[in-house]
């Protein structure tokens, strides 16, 4: 299905379309768009992605979940004892603030919802111990401004984690990525940046980078696959045992990737 620029669907309508396609069930589940929402959120909480993310999390405190979507990450943080503010400008009951409120009610977890954009945060300076965003930076209207705001509301030495961000090697790759994205032609909201653009925006905001995780380096980026799955595929191709493939080979493999829209994650700390 394709649409013209003048007849773009909303994000909610694009997801509704995706959910209606019988051959897209695996993708719907991989994106946690399946119902019931509470079941999808619990599956995220038990996923290889969340378990990998927890390796980088500080002790539970106050977290701002920017671009929270349906609230699956907010749910996971709240379940692990964090004080959660979920920021989501879309009011949708399917993929936006309405869905987060419903999830909080059904789970009886405390999640405060703010329906606004990340470029202008309604919080005082030095409010949060952690600012987190799952696939949010590449949707920014102003990447540098969003990073500046994230830094502003972080406490001194507070951490930020931005995961699953689409990366391109050169500007000419952007169209190839957008043309192959399953929903961009419907709602027109996808994007990708050069790796250096993400890094510069983060560093210029007053945050230091501790880890830049490439596409094969962590289960955060690989979900719904895992490093174990990738090793098995490589082992079958090379006709060797997967147990002898080191993580360093995956790191090298990921660093060499130039696939348009490949996923990177960023972990750092405010100065």
Automatic annotation (TrEMBL):
Pfam families: Methyltransf_11
GO BP annotation list: methylation
Domain of life: Bacteria
Keywords attached to this entry: Methyltransferase, Transferase
Methyltransferase type domain ranges (all copies): 64-162
Molecular functions (GO terms): S-adenosylmethionine-dependent methyltransferase activity
Protein name (database record): Probable SAM-dependent methyltransferase protein
């Amino acid at each position: 299905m394709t649409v013209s620029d003048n007849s773009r669907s909303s994000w909610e309508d694009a997801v509704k379309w995706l959910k209606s396609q019988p051959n897209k069930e695996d993708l719907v589940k991989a994106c946690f768009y399946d119902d019931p929402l509470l079941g999808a959120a619990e599956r995220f909480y038990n996923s290889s992605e969340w378990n990998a993310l927890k390796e980088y999390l500080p002790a539970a405190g106050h977290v701002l979940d920017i671009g929270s979507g349906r609230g699956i990450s907010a749910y996971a943080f709240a379940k692990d004892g964090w004080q959660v503010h979920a920021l989501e400008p879309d009011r949708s009951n399917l993929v936006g603030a309405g869905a987060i409120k419903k999830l909080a009610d059904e789970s009886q977890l405390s999640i405060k919802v703010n329906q606004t954009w990340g470029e202008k945060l309604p919080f005082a300076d030095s409010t949060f111990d952690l600012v987190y965003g799952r696939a949010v930076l590449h949707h920014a209207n102003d990447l540098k401004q969003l990073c500046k705001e994230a830094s502003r509301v972080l406490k001194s030495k507070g951490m930020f984690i931005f995961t699953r961000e689409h990366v391109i090697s050169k500007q000419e790759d952007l169209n190839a990525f957008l043309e192959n994205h399953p929903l961009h032609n419907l709602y027109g909201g996808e994007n990708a940046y050069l790796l250096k653009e993400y890094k510069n925006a983060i560093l210029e905001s007053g945050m230091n980078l501790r880890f830049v995780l490439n596409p094969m380096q962590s289960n955060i980026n690989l979900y719904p696959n895992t490093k174990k799955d990738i090793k098995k595929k490589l082992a079958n191709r090379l006709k060797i045992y997967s147990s002898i493939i080191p993580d360093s080979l995956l790191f090298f493999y990921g660093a060499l990737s130039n696939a348009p829209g490949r996923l990177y994650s960023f972990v750092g700390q405010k100065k």
